[in-house]
Amino acid sequence: MTSMTATRDAAKNQAETKQDGVASVAVENLHKKFGSHKVLNGVSLSVSRGETLAVLGRSGTGKSVLLRIIIGLETPDTGSVCIHGESIAGLNLDRMGEIRKKMGFLFQHAALYDSLTVAGNVAFPLEHHRRDMSRLERSDRVKQLLAEVGMEEGLDKMPSDISGGMQKRVGLARALALDPEILLLDEPTAGLDPISSGEIDDLILRLQRERQMASIVVTHDMHSAKTIANRLAILDQGNVVIEGSFEDLQQSEIGFVKEFLKKS
Q: Is residue 188 a contact partner of residue 204, using CB atoms and an 8 Å limit?
């Protein structure tokens, strides 16, 4: 199956799997500034089950901040974030913790724990949030997750002993540990060579087809974005300049969009 065919299939699945018109993630009119620096200036986006939205833009345009707000690690100045129709504003820690269990997060640099093995990193969320599982069940689950991302042979290795692409695979396995309904990916191909980047893209596409999650991917990699995403959104100066398919972006007459595509 080609990447474009997979993308079209994902778009079809997205249309078939929306439930009751409620988006998995709905961001409305988000504003956020740090000191005098305005990072987000009225951003509104949404993503539904089975759909992948790629968010692009220059460095410092608030892409990673957007993800951190969605998962509740940052608080917006104004605006709202709803997860499956529930606003996360003002939720207590217990309820926010329950919502976070529905979300998997792949950090930009994988953010593996240096003191834990590959298996230990993937087991970490299970040990903290699935205490109903026995040690054997957790071990089996870790092996299954590592097999899903092609890292079953590296479970006893330390993060320092594996490549950057392998670390991203382990980070993705950890993000999937609690069977999330929503997947947030921060620069999943950053710093990787073209072959490793392509492998990560293929892995994300396969996981999307199998798991039908709602995904938001922040990336600088236009090739990756148009390969894995149903829709793309470009941010500039804290605003969504355009949102649509890659073909929509190509046909845009907006100066910034044309320049961004030219240099991507």
A: yes
Per-residue exposure over 167-183, b if at least 16 CB sit within 10 Å of its own CB, e if not = bbbbbbbbbbbbebbbb
Helix or strand run (H / E) with residue 78 = strand 78-83
Enumerate the β-bridge partners of residue 183: 104, 215
Q: Give the DSSP letter of residue 197.
A: H
| Per-10-residue mean pLDDT, the chain, length 264 | 42 44 92 93 95 91 91 94 94 91 86 93 92 92 93 90 91 93 92 88 90 93 92 94 95 93 84
